[in-house]
């Protein structure tokens, strides 16, 4: 069970790191352009997204370090994982809200060029955001149903 937790945290940390890089690259790209209200909003969205992904990355990495350290001791594995479940939830929500901000920024980015591109990116980005929200709801419902009462 500990090995599965470590592997899952590694995968989440990798994903967070990659997405943080994309969001930060968008910030760097937008910093070199002429300032408008929309561009300032995009910089804030992508910047906040990058910070949330970095927070999730830190949480997953730190959790892995603790699990690996305590695994070598004689602490029962379930006790270690249950003690860190709050951190896992915090990392998950940081990652999810980072993704939501990233998709919102992508949705708004088309408006920088043209009305048609703005409409297209808004429709596609909000569709992706709704899809991720639907998945989140299904996961939460499955967790609630699996929890013993």
Word description of this protein:
- With about 150 residues, the chain is mainly α.
- It has one domain (about 1-145): Butyryl-CoA Dehydrogenase, subunit A, domain 3, CATH 1.20.140.
- It contains five helices and no strands.
- The protein has helices at about 1-30, 35-70, 75-85, 85-110, 115-145.
- It starts with a helix and ends with a helix.
- The model has no long low-confidence stretch (mean pLDDT about 90).
Q: How are the secondary structure elements laid out?
A:
Elements: H1 2-31, H2 37-72, H3 77-83, H4 85-109, H5 115-146
Helix pairs in contact: 1-2, 1-4, 2-4, 4-5
CATH fold field value: Butyryl-CoA Dehydrogenase, subunit A, domain 3
Give me the Rg, rounded.
Answer: 18 Å
Main sheet overview: none
What does the average pLDDT come to? 88
What CATH architecture do you see?
Up-down Bundle
> What oligomerization state is this entry in?
single chain
The domain tally reads 1
The end-to-end distance, rounded to whole angstroms, is 22 Å
């Amino acid at each position: 069970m500990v090995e599965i937790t470590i592997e899952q945290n590694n995968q989440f940390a990798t994903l967070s790191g990659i997405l943080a890089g994309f969001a930060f690259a968008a910030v760097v790209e937008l910093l070199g352009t002429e300032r408008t209200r929309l561009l300032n909003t995009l910089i804030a969205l992508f910047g906040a997204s990058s910070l949330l992904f970095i927070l999730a990355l830190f949480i997953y990495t730190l959790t892995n370090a603790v699990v690996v350290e305590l695994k070598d001791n004689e602490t029962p594995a379930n006790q270690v994982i249950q003690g860190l479940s709050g951190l896992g939830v915090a990392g998950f929500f940081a990652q999810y809200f980072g993704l939501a901000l990233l998709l919102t920024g992508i949705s708004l980015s088309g408006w920088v060029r043209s009305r048609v591109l703005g409409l297209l990116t808004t429709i596609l980005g909000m569709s992706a955001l709704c899809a991720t929200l639907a998945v989140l709801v299904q996961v939460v419902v499955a967790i609630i149903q699996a929890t013993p009462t």
